[in-house]
C-alpha cells in the first residue's frame, strides 16, 4: 500500500531528480555556445522536464499542506518568507553581483532582483511566490469537490494567457506570470486529492502503467528530435511531463524502502537557486586560467566531469544552507518561547 509518508518520500526524489535536470539544462545551454553534438541537444531538450516536474510537485505539496496542516495566514507565509522568499532575494543579489561585478544600488537594480530578472532561472520563484498568495486565498474556492470542473477553466486560462493576453509588461517574460503555469500547478492539487484512486489504479493495472511509460518515453524522444523548441509552459509539453510525473511517482514508490536518502527541507530548492552561481564562477575561473573554455566542452568526458562538479558543489552548498536555515528557525522559536515566558 502506498502511504502518504511513502508518497512524500517519492516526491522528494522527484524534486531531487528535477533539480538535477535544471542543472543539466543550464549546463548544456553553456555547452551549446561552443559545441552541439546530439547528446548535448538531447539533454538540453530533456532537461526542460525539470521545471515542469517541480511545478507539479509544488502544487501537490501545497495541497497536502492545506489539508494536513491547515496553516493560518501567519504560519503559512512566515514559512514561505523564511524558506522561499528571503533565499530568493539573496540569490538575486548574488547573481547581480556575479554578472555585473557590482552590488545593487539603484531602484532599477532592486526591482530586477525582486522580479527575478538577475538570473535566468529566477523567473520561476517570482511566479511561485504569486502562486502561494493565490493558492492560499483561493483554497476554499478551488477544492477537491470542484477541481474536476475548475481544472478545465484553468487550462483555458493558461492557454489564452500565453497565446493572447501576455504583453511583456515591465520586461517580464511569459514564464514570470502565474497564469502561464496555473493549470500545471493545479494538476498537482488534483493529483494530491485523487492520489489514492490514481495510484491504486496504476498499481493494479500494470499494463496501463507500461502503456503510460511507453507514451511518456515516446513523447520525450519526440521533443528531442523535433526541430521546434517546446518551452516549459507549452501545454503539449505539460501533458507529456504529467505522464512522466505519474510514471516517476510509481517508480520511486517502489524504491523508497530501499533508498536511504534522507529528506532535507529546502535542499532541492537551494540547488535550484544557487547552481548557476557555480556555472558562472567556474567559467570565470577557467577564463582566468586558460583564456577560454571551449576545450572543456569539446570533450565529452571533460564535459560530464564538469557537470558532475557543478551538481556536486551545488548539493554541498545547499546542505550547508539547509542546516543554516534550520538553525536560524530553531533559534527564532527559542527566542519567541523565551519572550512569551517573560510576558507571562
UniProtKB/TrEMBL annotation:
Annotated keywords: Acyltransferase, Cell membrane, Membrane, Transferase, Transmembrane, Transmembrane helix
Major place of residence: membrane
Protein's membrane topology: Multi-pass membrane protein
InterPro entries: Acyl_transf_3_dom (IPR002656)
GO CC entries: plasma membrane
Location in or out of the cell: Cell membrane
Transmembrane segment boundaries: 12-34, 46-66, 78-98, 121-138, 147-166, 178-195, 207-225, 231-255, 267-286, 306-325
Matches recorded under Pfam families: Acyl_transf_3
Any one Gene Ontology molecular-function term assigned to this protein's record: O-acetyltransferase activity
An example Gene Ontology biological process: enterobacterial common antigen biosynthetic process
All residue ranges annotated as the Acyltransferase domain in the record: 13-318
Protein family according to the UniProt entry: Belongs to the acyltransferase 3 family.
Name recorded for this polypeptide: Acyltransferase
Organism the protein comes from: Brevibacillus agri
Amino acid at each position: 500500500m502506498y502511504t502518504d509518508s511513502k508518497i512524500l518520500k517519492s516526491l522528494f526524489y522527484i524534486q531531487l531528480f528535477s533539480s538535477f535536470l535544471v542543472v543539466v539544462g543550464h549546463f548544456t545551454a553553456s555547452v551549446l555556445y561552443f559545441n552541439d553534438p546530439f547528446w548535448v541537444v538531447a539533454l538540453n531538450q530533456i532537461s526542460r522536464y525539470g521545471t515542469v516536474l517541480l511545478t507539479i510537485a509544488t502544487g501537490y505539496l501545497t495541497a497536502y499542506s492545506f489539508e494536513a496542516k491547515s496553516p493560518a495566514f501567519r504560519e503559512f507565509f512566515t514559512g514561505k518568507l523564511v524558506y522561499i522568499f528571503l533565499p530568493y532575494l539573496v540569490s538575486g543579489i548574488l547573481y547581480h553581483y556575479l554578472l555585473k561585478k557590482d552590488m545593487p544600488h539603484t531602484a532599477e537594480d532592486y526591482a530586477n532582483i525582486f522580479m527575478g530578472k538577475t538570473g535566468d532561472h529566477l523567473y520561476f520563484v517570482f511566479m511561485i511566490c504569486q502562486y502561494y498568495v493565490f493558492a492560499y486565498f483561493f483554497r476554499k474556492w478551488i477544492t477537491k469537490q470542484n477541481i474536476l470542473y475548475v481544472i478545465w477553466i484553468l487550462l483555458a486560462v493558461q492557454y489564452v494567457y500565453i497565446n493572447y493576453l501576455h504583453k511583456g509588461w515591465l520586461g517580464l517574460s511569459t514564464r514570470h506570470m502565474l497564469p502561464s503555469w496555473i493549470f500545471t500547478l493545479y494538476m498537482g492539487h488534483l493529483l494530491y486529492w485523487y492520489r489514492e484512486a490514481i495510484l491504486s489504479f496504476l498499481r493494479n493495472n500494470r499494463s496501463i502503467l507500461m502503456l503510460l511509460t511507453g507514451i511518456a518515453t515516446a513523447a520525450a524522444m519526440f521533443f528531442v528530435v523535433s526541430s521546434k523548441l517546446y518551452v516549459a509552459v507549452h501545454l503539449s509539453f505539460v501533458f507529456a511531463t504529467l505522464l512522466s510525473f505519474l510514471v516517476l511517482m510509481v517508480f520511486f514508490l517502489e524504491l523508497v524502502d530501499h533508498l536511504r536518502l534522507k529528506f532535507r527541507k529546502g535542499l532541492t530548492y537551494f540547488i535550484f537557486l544557487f547552481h548557476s552561481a557555480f556555472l558562472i564562477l567556474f567559467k570565470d575561473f577557467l577564463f582566468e586560467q586558460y583564456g577560454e573554455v571551449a576545450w572543456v566542452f569539446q570533450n565529452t568526458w571533460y564535459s560530464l566531469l564538469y557537470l558532475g562538479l557543478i551538481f556536486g558543489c551545488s548539493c554541498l552548498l545547499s546542505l550547508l544552507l539547509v542546516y543554516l536555515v534550520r538553525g536560524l528557525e530553531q533559534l527564532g522559536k527559542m527566542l519567541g518561547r523565551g519572550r512569551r515566558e517573560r510576558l507571562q
